[in-house]
Amino acid sequence: MRGVLLAETWPSLLEYWRMILCKGHCFQVRWSSTVDKSLPDPPTAVLLHGILGCRKNWGSFARRLAKAFPTWQFLLVDLRCHGDSASMKKRGPHTVSSTALDVLKLVAQLRLTPRVLIGHSFGGKVALSMVEQAAKPLARPVRVWVLDATPGKVRPGGNKEDHPAELISFLSTLPKEVSSKRDVVEALIREGFSMDVAQWVVTNLRPTESPGSPTSFSWAFDLEGIAEMYQSYEENNLWEIVEDVPGGVHVNFLKAERSLHRWALEDIQRIRAAEELAADEGGAVEMHVLEDAGHWVHADNPDGLFKILSSSFQMLK
To answer: Which intervals hold domain AB hydrolase-1 (predicted)?
Structure first.
């Protein structure tokens, strides 16, 4: 699903559905365009990826959720400047807030009221910003999952393996069109990035359609926009929404056990304090720890993540 399609872009909702389905932009694990008025609308979960990712990062995990909870529908979104949404030239600023507004406009266009928001890293802050910006179209109750991200200061690792700013900077020095994915992987490794990171990054390379020319690849993202988004992610402070969480909103933070540098003791203490405060005011804040996982929680320990997230789909029916 293109994450930055706005309602005014399309003449009607019916045409919107037809065009995105025909062009293959719909990447929902469970979705039906047939409306049975005798049945209630199925609850919806929205899954948001991190910087330099795309909706496909959540594909296999979302299919697992859909199989376990068949009454739910799952919407996977390419955020602005990423994946299929990168072809839609959005005006800046490219920030956490503007990205959240994109998603809010998208679910409003689709006439959805999400009951669960799941965001990894940058996507976690986007989910928090969605709650901050709109009472509607978010349903109540709504459960927000912020996966391995804090509401405030971003503390990236001290090495290139886990430092998106350094990765973005290096990618900006590479040609916009390359002849081989292997060459890019080797260049990243020479620069000090891990094989896992290098192989993940090149999933963003797409074949360039040039009839009669040798096969080449170009990036599927807008790197300049992403650099601006990451800067916003580092600077954006959303502690206020956590420490004054609206009624009916349940904010869940998930800390990856091996992602130590991202979490200062003061962050954990502040979230624990917010837990107690929210309980007194009708909202909820909760802290979770995912064992045996680094920052890439849905790849490092999908079973553990599934077990933790399942509570939201069991409680909200």
So the answer is: 46-306
CA dist 266 → 12, 208, 271 (Å):
49, 47, 9
Q: H/E element holding 219? A: strand 217-219
Two tokens at 196? 């896992």
3-state secondary structure of 216: coil
Give pLDDT tens digits for 2-16. 322 222 222 222 222
Distance, CA of 133 to CA of 145 (rounded, Å): 17
- Is the entire prediction scored with pTM above 0.70? yes
Q: Work out the number of other CB atoms within 10 angstroms of the CB of residue 230.
A: 22
- Beta strands in 17-127, from DSSP E residues, in sequence order: 44-48, 73-77, 116-120
Residues of the chain with pLDDT under 50: 1-37, 160
Q: Which residues, other chains included, contact 105 with Cβ-Cβ below 8 Å and sequence gap of 6+?
A: 6, 7
